[in-house]
Amino acid sequence: MAGHLLELKGVGIRFGGLHAVADLSFAVEPGEVVGLIGPNGAGKTTAFNLITGVYRPTSGEIHFDGSLISGKAPHEVATRGIARTFQTIRLFHGHSVLQNILAGTHLHVRQRWWQGLLGVPEQRREEQRLRDESMSMLAELGLERYASMNAGQLAYGVQRRVELARALMTRPRLLILDEPAAGLNDAESLALNETIRNIQGRGIGVLLVEHDMNVVMNVTDKVVCINFGRKIAEGLPEAVAADGAVIEAYLGRDEEL
């Protein structure tokens, strides 16, 4: 079907005799927020690794904007417009917040390395442009005051926002968020919800794994639930949350959500 930003068609991967993901199919549209949920060990992060090129699927196909990306290397996937954050924060500790944000601009640097060595005017102008764009992103996410601070010394919730800002600096068309609310307090979770809505407002698709169901129920347009690597439900958040198979996967038989 034309028009999908991201589409998984019968995707699977086997590790030895284990089907970590099996026959997984779903799509993300431009500007749509999709939640991928499931109990621990369901295969959610494995699905993310398949989409971003960390793993090569053993079956099925993954398409992005109509092009096959199955088996592409992570840097090739990134250049097509897919950015990702991780469960564990992966900032460059020992470097400033601004330096971390600038790292997200590397896909869009037009000047050659030797121009930087020579300090040609074009290189200096581009460097200033990227710094200005990075500072604008920091301001947008309420991080401007941290620009010169060591990223590794910031509070956990602030580090989460810095990582998100860096991902956005790659100018993605699809943003993949792996447990973005993990470790956040209630106020920070509410701020995250607003940030995700703002990202959606730019027309960027968002695919997120999240155990905080308040976040899932408040920001997603659609939810896909998997268990043992297989999709067991897909639909509106309220419908999926009330699905008997989903309740059983999370809480066991004869339990109530």
What does this structure look like?
The structure is a single chain. This protein has 257 residues and is an alpha/beta fold. The chain has a domain at 6-81 and 172-251: P-loop containing nucleotide triphosphate hydrolases (Rossmann fold). Helix content is 37%, strand content 23%. It is built from ten helices and ten strands. The protein has helices at residues 44-51, 74-79, 97-103, 113-118, 121-140, 156-168, 186-201, 213-219, 237-241, 244-251, and strands at residues 6-15, 18-28, 33-37, 59-64, 67-68, 82-84, 174-178, 205-209, 222-227, 230-235. Helix 7 (186-201) links the parallel strand 7 (174-178) and strand 8. It is globular and about 60 Å long. It starts with 5 loop residues before the first strand and ends in a 6-residue tail after the last helix. The mean pLDDT is 89.
